[in-house]
Specification:
By secondary structure, the protein is of the alpha+beta class. The chain contains 6 helices and 5 strands, in the order ββαββαααβαα. It has 2 domains: 92 residues, no CATH class; 46 residues, Arc Repressor Mutant, subunit A (Orthogonal Bundle). A 5-stranded antiparallel sheet has the order 2-3-4-1-5. The longest helix is centred in the C-terminal third of the chain and has 16 residues.
Length: 155
C-alpha cells in the first residue's frame, strides 16, 4: 500500500517477537526499508488462517477496506488519511499456484516428503520447495529438490 507519510514503524508484529516469527501471524512492514526510495510503502505478509481473513473476501476493495480499518484502529485513522494506492498479490487466487509456499505438514515431514518425491513409473519425478527438508518454503529449497530429482532420475 502506498502512502503519503510513513506513519508506521519499520515492522509491526502482533504478539511477542518469537511467537510472531514462528506462528501464523500477520506482519505489516515498511517495504521500502533501507531501499534507495523516498516512497512510503507499507506491506502486509500473512499466511494460513490470518491470510484467509483477506483472501476469502470477494474484491480488492473489500480487502483494502479491511486492511485500512485495521491500520486506522492501530494508528488513529492515519492509514486512511495517508492512503494513496495499493497492489494486492493474492497467491491463493492464482489458478496454477493456489498459495505462496508450503508451510506445515499434518504428519511426519520426512515420511510425507518421501511419499511425495516417489516417482511415477520412473517417468514422472517431483521437485519443489515443499520437498526440501532443510529449506522448505525457500527458492534455494526448490532448487535443491530439483537437483535431487535429477540425481534420482539419473541414479
Amino acid at each position: 500500500m502506498s502512502s503519503k507519510s510513513d506513519f508506521y514503524p519499520d515492522i509491526l508484529l502482533f504478539g511477542q517477537l518469537v511467537e510472531a516469527l514462528t506462528s501464523d501471524s500477520k506482519t505489516f512492514y515498511d517495504a521500502a526499508f533501507r531501499k534507495d526510495s523516498n516512497r512510503h510503502i507499507l506491506g502486509l505478509f500473512s499466511i494460513n488462517e490470518d491470510a484467509a481473513a483477506y483472501a476469502n473476501l470477494n474484491t480488492e476493495e473489500e480487502i483494502i477496506t479491511k486492511i485500512l480499518n485495521e491500520l486506522d484502529e492501530i494508528f488513529d485513522g492515519q492509514a486512511s488519511e495517508h492512503y494513496v494506492k495499493h497492489i494486492i498479490q493474492n497467491w491463493s487466487k492464482e489458478p496454477y499456484i493456489k498459495g505462496a509456499y508450503s508451510y506445515t505438514f499434518d504428519n511426519d515431514q520426512l515420511e510425507t516428503v518421501d511419499a511425495l518425491k516417489a516417482p511415477l513409473d520412473n517417468k514422472v519425478y517431483f521437485a519443489g520447495e515443499a520437498l526440501s527438508i532443510d529449506y522448505q518454503a525457500t527458492v534455494h529449497g526448490a532448487c535443491q529438490s530439483g537437483y535431487a530429482a535429477v540425481e534420482q532420475m539419473l541414479g
